[in-house]
Specification:
Elements (H helix, E strand, L loop, with lengths): L3 H8 L5 E7 L3 E7 L5 E2 L6 E2 L2 E11 L5 E12 L6 E3 L13 H10 L6 H7 L4 H8 L14 E9 L2 E9 L4 E6 L4 H8 L7 H16 L5 H9 L1 H6 L8 H16 L6 H12 L1
Parallel strand pairs: 2-6
Antiparallel strand pairs: 1-2, 3-4, 5-6, 6-7, 8-9, 9-10
C-alpha cells in the first residue's frame, strides 16, 4: 500500500501536494495539486493569484508496479486587469495530454532496445498504438557526412521498397543515416545536399598544373593515365576502411526487423534503427 508521503518521494515532482492515494488491484490513483501562487497574465502581463475555477485532468504516469493515474486538480486563474482566464503552468503535464512528459520519455527510451513495440507497450501499461505515437515524436535529421563513409544495402521491405541503404562511419562506429531505397538517382540527390569533400580533388588538379609548368614529354603518358582514372584515384583516398562495421549493423537490423515482425512504415523503421544506435 502506498501512502501520501512515500508517494510524494517516488513521484519526484517539485512543489506538488498529494491530497489522496487510492490503491486498487490493477491501478493506483494519485490525487494532487500545485500550490497556489501568482501567475503572469499571458494577455496583458499583469500578475494575479485570483482563482477563477478548478478542473481535474486525469493522465497516465510511469507505472509504480501497476497502471498509475495522476488526478491533477488544476486551477484556472483570472486576470483582474483584463479579465483573461488561463490555466496554471506546470512542467510535467502538457495541456490536454493523457500522459505525463516522463511517461512519454520512458517509452521513447525503451525503443532504444531491440525489442518489439508490443513488449514496450505492455511494460508501460499503454496500447501498442499509443507507444508508437510516442515513438513517432522521434525524428533524426541527416548528419554531416564523415571523412570515412561506408554504404551498403539491406533487405528492409519498408515504404513499399524491398531494399534500403545504410550509411555508416566505420572509423567512429556509428550509423549516419538510413535511405529509403538504393536507386542511383535518389542516392545522387541525397549526396548533393552535402558540401563536397574537395581537398583530394584540388590537390590532384594542382599536380596537373605543375606538369604543364615543367613541360616534359616524359610526363605526357602519366598525365593521360591519371586523367583517364581520375575518379578512381580520388576514390582510393578512402582506404584502408572496409564495410565490416556496416555489415555488422545490417545483422542487427535483421534482428530488429525479426523482433518487430516487419515494419512497413519506412520513416518509423529508419528512426528505430537510428534510435537503437544512438
Amino acid at each position: 500500500m502506498l501512502n501520501k508521503d512515500y508517494t510524494s518521494k517516488i513521484l519526484n515532482l517539485e512543489d506538488v501536494k498529494i491530497n489522496n492515494v487510492e490503491n486498487e488491484s490493477d491501478s493506483i490513483h494519485i490525487y494532487l495539486e500545485l500550490p497556489r501562487k501568482e501567475h503572469i497574465c499571458p494577455a496583458c502581463g499583469a500578475t494575479t493569484n485570483l482563482v477563477h475555477d478548478y478542473r481535474e485532468q486525469v493522465v497516465k504516469d510511469v507505472p509504480l508496479g501497476r497502471t498509475t493515474y495522476l488526478h491533477l486538480r488544476k486551477r484556472r486563474y483570472r486576470c483582474p486587469a483584463c479579465g483573461k482566464r488561463f490555466a496554471e503552468a506546470n512542467g510535467f503535464l502538457p495541456r490536454y495530454h493523457r500522459m505525463t512528459n516522463r511517461l512519454v520519455a520512458s517509452i521513447i527510451n525503451a525503443f532504444r532496445k531491440v525489442t518489439s513495440a508490443t513488449e514496450i507497450a505492455a511494460q508501460h501499461n499503454v496500447s501498442v498504438s499509443s507507444a508508437l505515437r510516442c515513438f513517432d515524436l522521434v525524428s533524426y535529421r541527416p548528419k554531416k557526412l564523415s571523412a570515412v563513409l561506408s554504404i551498403d544495402e539491406f533487405k528492409g521491405n519498408a515504404g513499399h521498397q524491398k531494399y534500403q541503404a545504410i550509411l555508416t562511419n566505420p572509423e567512429k562506429k556509428e550509423i549516419l543515416d538510413i535511405l529509403p531505397n538504393r536507386y542511383e538517382s535518389d542516392l545522387i540527390s541525397y549526396f548533393r545536399q552535402f558540401p563536397l569533400r574537395k581537398e583530394g580533388k584540388e590537390r590532384l588538379q594542382l599536380w596537373f598544373e605543375h606538369l604543364h609548368t615543367v613541360d616534359l614529354p616524359e610526363f605526357d603518358d602519366c598525365e593521360k593515365a591519371c586523367r583517364n582514372w581520375f575518379q578512381e584515384i580520388l576514390n582510393s583516398f578512402d582506404v584502408p576502411w572496409t564495410n565490416g562495421f556496416t555489415e555488422g549493423c545490417n545483422n542487427k537490423t535483421k534482428v530488429l526487423k525479426r523482433v518487430y515482425y516487419g515494419v512497413r512504415n519506412f520513416n518509423r523503421f529508419r528512426n528505430r534503427i537510428l534510435h537503437c544506435s544512438s
